[in-house]
Design a protein that fits this description.
This protein has about 800 residues and is α+β, with helices and mostly antiparallel strands. Helix content is about 30%, strand content about 25%. Strands 13-12-11-16-15-14 form a six-stranded antiparallel sheet, with helices on both faces. Strands 18, 19, 20, 21, 24 and 25 form a six-stranded mixed sheet that branches. It has a five-stranded antiparallel sheet with strand order 2-1-5-4-3. Strand 15 and strand 16 form a beta hairpin. The N and C termini lie far apart (about 115 Å).
Length: about 800
């Protein structure tokens, strides 16, 4: 065949029993033709004798004949594969051998032996040929008997240690290679011996005698040998060193592991620790990750390597050791570490280039100031032999350094190890920088939100209140949950919990806008459903103003939720309304928990039916629990509503000594430390105002009743021991009652409430709010409300179904017990 390569060298054991012989003269002409040759190729002697031998072959092989003849004359013999052309045109693959022959007259001819290959697996090779093959192959080959003892091995097996073949005879695998797992290898031998199944490509990692201090990888294959009767005689196996391929797979596996395990969170310290965890033990025995302090704070960094500095202070952000005695040599994670001037870590930080040392100076001291206590530890004491230092750089910014150590002297870090370390660190650096950027944004958003949330709940006498806020974890970002407690007129209080959509600064900004709007609307003393209606209009107008902007415009509150509750401690009445928000839970004084059947109106700004309110009377000591939806769905957005409510009910039923502890216990029970969504919980335990602290009188719409109202109020203040407020209260009562009689219609009602302030309320049937005027010096009237505003701490108007109430508050110092 034209494409076959010739097989050079003498074939001393060539089997000529079935070969067809013929002779060639020195010029390569056929000089003698035999009947065997005629049967093989179909040509008669008259057709062949005198013709060139090459005419009997394919054109490609004919061109090889002169070279084969020449090599036969120089070497005395030549053998190879060629393709002949049968007389009928068929191609016949055959073995061709040329040997010099001397005729009786001393004339030198060439003996040609032709042997057809059809029907055979290959050459009929002699034992010497087979011995050459097994002796010259680079693959280790051995044969063990049924007792798994060596009976033969080739020279290539010696490269793995264990001595020459004759020394192996009669020994077991464990005797030859004690550093490898002989049990697992012999188990494969027994499997092949017992089942007759070949074991191909069995990979084994261990320490062979030729390299006892270094792990190497080998691929073994096992085949059973049978005698002529089919009985097992032993096992034939081959060994190939695949250490480089094994290490390449390890490198790829390490990179894959780095991609899966580094950067699973947006926490800087966790990411640094993940880098150390991935590198040990696959790449190093001991790894430290040190980050600049500014990185941990999320600060913006200048591009490029660090400037030259005599000292560089970082913080240990992560470390991992393969050995128990190494962690004692470093400071705790999170502690400051200062590298000595011109030490390799400092050079890596200032140049931005990696550094590798195959063999450390065993007497060199560590590079950290004050390492190992008050004295310096040498690398010899620590057993560290080889080191790599790789700067942590991402997006052109230097973040810190990662240091890799090995203890094994026989396996120092090489250039491939450094390239792998740089690849792993570069991947981790992007994750660290992402975490740094996120930390900066999250801290800013958290600071903004905390500045917008109440620093403490205001003092008031209507409820005992406590709140708990838990921000979302780093993967979802800070949300827009908020809460508030707003004192209202008449000793009442408003409780509010809301949630703005989105995460981060956008959500915090939207939350701040909503909270400000709610406080403004609360100052108007509107019913809860009207507060939500005005808030819905405000959000809708805000979205319309931003209309052309992209989705998720900064601070867009569309889709926000809110629940607004007003509690009156005088009569224990509680009125509430909700906009796309869970209804509150009520814990009765006996500890039972119910949920208010409150219509959940549409979310703010999305449109829908009008908001509805619900009014109920709460016994003193009842606890209202207002919360955002993160409390019910702490881990994901999917869940069973009834199941979530049952979990909340069970948490609220737990009795705690204080309301603050109850609030925190509920959040801890239902919400993980790093929840999917942020959570706000506001709990308020209701109080009832002592009936003796409320006094009310119905007045007729007669101007003469103003004097009676003054006397009645004065008498009540005297009974309350508030004589210092008599004068101002007389003026306030006089002006408010006079205005009600003069400008309103229907009956007039005067009420005094003694709580943390003295509240004077005048109710009339009018629907018009009074206006504060600034009269001129010549005007005869119009000074009543101006006088009230000067005397009272605050004053205002609130509308009720049957009219309006004008009220004024005067502070009490100290507040009554």
């Amino acid at each position: 065949m034209g494409g076959h390569k010739e097989q050079d060298g003498a074939r001393q054991g060539f089997d000529v029993a079935d070969a067809a012989p013929l002779l060639l003269d020195p010029q390569g002409m056929v000089s003698s033709w035999t009947g065997h040759a005629e049967r093989l190729l179909g040509y008669g002697a008259t057709e062949v004798v005198g013709r060139k031998f090459g005419k009997l072959l394919t054109p490609d092989d004919a061109e090889r004949v002169p070279d084969a003849v020449e090599r036969c004359r120089s070497d005395g013999d030549w053998a190879g594969l060629m393709t002949a052309l049968h007389r009928d045109g068929r191609r016949i693959s055959m073995t061709v051998r040329l040997t010099q022959a001397v005729e009786p007259r001393g004339r030198t001819s060439l003996l040609v032996l032709l042997s057809e290959l059809a029907g055979s697996a290959g050459w009929d090779m002699s034992r010497s040929l087979l011995e050459q093959m097994v002796a010259r192959t680079p693959i280790g080959i051995a044969i063990v008997d049924t007792d798994l003892r060596f009976v033969w091995s080739n020279a290539a097996l010696e490269q793995f240690g264990g001595g020459p073949a004759e020394r192996r005879l009669g020994l077991r695998f464990a005797d030859i290679q004690p550093g490898m797992n002989a049990d697992s290898v012999e188990a494969q031998m027994r499997h092949a011996l017992e089942t007759g199944e070949q074991v191909i490509g069995y990979e084994h990692v261990g320490r062979v005698r030729s390299a006892p201090l270094r792990e190497t990888a080998h691929m073994l294959s096992f085949t059973r040998l049978d005698d002529d009767r089919g009985s097992p005689m032993g096992v034939y196996y081959t060994v190939v060193d695949i250490t480089e391929r094994h290490r390449a797979r390890q490198r790829l596996a390490l990179l894959d592991r780095a991609g899966q395990h580094i950067g699973r969170t947006l926490d800087i310290m966790n990411t640094a620790q993940e880098l150390a965890d991935v590198a040990v033990p696959g790449l190093a025995d001991f790894v430290t990750v040190d980050l600049l302090e500014t990185v941990l704070r999320g600060a913006e960094l200048p591009p490029g390597p660090l400037g030259d500095s005599a000292r560089v202070s970082l913080r240990h952000a992560g470390y991992r050791s393969r050995y128990e005695d190494l962690p004692r040599t470093i400071v705790d994670t999170g502690a400051v570490v200062t590298y000595l001037a011109d030490s390799p870590p400092v050079r890596c930080l200032t140049t931005g280039r990696s550094w590798r040392q195959e063999q450390l100076d065993p007497l060199a001291v560590e590079w950290i100031e004050g390492s190992a206590g008050d004295r310096e530890s040498t690398f010899l004491e620590l057993g560290l032999q080889s080191v790599m230092i790789v700067p942590i750089r991402a997006r052109g910014v230097t973040l810190g350094v990662t240091t890799f150590f090995r203890r094994r002297r026989e396996d120092p870090f090489d250039a491939d190890d450094l390239a792998l370390a740089e690849d792993v660190v570069s991947r981790a650096a992007v994750c660290v920088d992402n975490a740094r950027r996120y930390t900066r944004e999250r801290d800013a958003a958290l600071a903004l939100q905390r500045s917008l949330l109440p620093h403490h709940l205001p003092e008031q006498g209507a409820v005992e209140a406590s709140a708990c806020y838990r921000p979302a974890d780093e993967l979802t970002g800070l949300g827009g949950d908020w809460y508030d407690l707003i004192p209202l007129s008449g000793a009442r209080v408003a409780l509010v919990v809301g949630e703005a959509p989105g995460h981060g600064i956008d959500a915090a900004a939207a939350m701040g806008g909503l909270r400000t709007a709610v406080r403004t609307l609360a100052a108007l003393d509107l019913p809860p459903e009207e507060v939500l209606a005005h808030l819905d209009d405000l959000v809708d107008r805000s979205a319309g103003d931003e209309g052309a902007g992209p989705e998720g415009t900064y601070g867009n509150p569309v889709g926000s939720g809110c629940v607004y509750v007003v509690y009156d401690p005088v009569d224990g009445r509680c009125t509430m309304a909700a906009a796309g928000h869970p209804s509150p839970a009520v814990v009765a004084p006996d500890g039972s928990v119910t949920f208010v059947d409150l219509p959940e109106g549409p979310s703010l700004g999305v449109g829908g039916p009008p908001f509805e309110s619900v009014e109920l009377e709460l016994p003193e000591g009842s606890t209202l629990a207002l919360h955002t939806d993160g409390l019910l769905l702490p881990s994901d957005r999917d869940g069973d509503f009834d199941t979530d409510r049952n979990r909340l009910r069970q948490a609220l039923e737990r009795s705690e000594p204080t309301l603050e502890l109850s609030c925190r216990t509920v959040v801890d029970a239902l919400v993980p430390t790093r929840p999917y969504d942020d959570v706000a919980l506001l709990m308020a335990r209701t109080k009832r105002l002592d009936p003796g602290h409320v006094a009310a009188w119905d007045l007729s719409a007669d101007p003469a009743v103003v004097a009676e109202a003054r006397r009645t109020a004065t008498g009540q203040l005297t009974r309350w021991g508030l004589d210092e407020l008599v004068f101002t209260t007389e003026l306030v009562v006089s002006e408010l009652v006079t205005n009600a009689i003069r400008y309103a219609s229907g009956p007039v009602r005067l009420r005094l409430i003694r709580e943390r302030a003295l509240v004077c309320e005048v109710h009339d049937g009018g629907a018009t709010a009074p206006h504060l005027r600034h009269p001129r010096a010549t005007d005869e009237g119009g000074r009543g409300l101006l006088l009230v505003s000067q005397l009272a701490q605050r004053w205002g108007t609130r509308f009720v179904p049957d009219g309006k109430i004008i009220w004024a508050e005067q502070s009490l110092t100290p507040p009554p017990e």
